[in-house]
Amino acid sequence: MTENQNLTKEKMNHVLVSDYAWLLEKGKEGGLLWNGSMADLCVWTHQLFLQFAITDKHGNARQYKSLMREICALTHRDMPHNPNSYLSHSQKEDYAWNKTFTTRYKEIFLSGDEHPISHFLSRKKDE
Prior knowledge:
Blueprint: H1 3-29, E1 32-34, H2 38-49, H3 64-74, H4 83-90, H5 101-110, E2 121-123
Antiparallel strand pairs: 1-2
Helix pairs in contact: 2-3, 2-4
């Protein structure tokens, strides 16, 4: 891996954690909706989990399912019974008409968007 690729990967990892903090802040205001697929949500959460940067009140790294529960609640999605099953199905190779979530997220990041995750969210309309 070149130095430039390492730098980009490091920045992407920072953006993942930054997006999580942004999601927590905006989620507390209420009304966030996840517009992407459940597979996309599971992949993003799993990538976040792999950073081991999100900790519980005791300083231990959060578990994947714990993060999924929290993020599903913030984005008004039902927690899947087996989020790992979405991960295995979402690892298909990219091709012209079907890019993986990770590729789409990276493209948004490389375009200069401060919070790539915002492209997969919307606000709930008042009823």
